[in-house]
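debug: dumping io for the single-chain case to check the tokenizer round-trip. Nothing else runs in this session.
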Amino acid sequence: MAKRSSYYRPAFDIFAPLYDLGIWLIGLLLGGEKRLRTFIIEETNPVQGCKVLEICCGTATTVLLSAEKGALAYGLDISHGMLNVAREKAQRQKVKLELVQADTISIPFKEKVFDRVVASMGLHEMPFDVTMNVLKEVKQVLKSGGRLIIFDYHQGEGLAGLLQKIFFMFSEHDEAKEFIRADLQKELREAGFKSFNRRLLAKGALQIVTAEA
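debug: decoded output
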């Protein structure tokens, strides 16, 4: 069992069997889960033989899509419940996927081994200091010129911003509010990344960010 971080919550394990359903329902409000994951895969571009790691992978839906396209796929999560579901999905789909239970503040891989690292809806769960440590860890395991792809919340505007605030009141912790207020570009630069590109989705309530190691 991996050592539990300050951002670990028992709910990660308890609700793991219902996680995919919950994400699908939320996705309906944001243009559809499949559509959103397609955007992530487009940015990841997991070509044959590309080595892809997803941190905070949950039930591994996104990284399984990379594996299906021929990437050497790895999923890392601190929750054994999430990984159990991910393992079952990989077996059903007959897709090769390496799953590791570990904390993202200490990624258990050698330096410069991955072409892509994906962080999908995971960073907003972490306190600021943990996020910075995670970004530095990701930078270390990425090859020179490799890319980090972040899919997460962004500060929505207008009606999207209002709905986001209501959603946060009932479904998110303070870390999520801190995340959307933070200067992600500055954090990535301080972690050693060279470039920064952002694509806004769902009326600005979501973002896909790519950064080069």
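debug: round-trip ok. Strands lie at 51-55, 72-77, 98-101, 114-120, 142-153, 197-201, 206-212.
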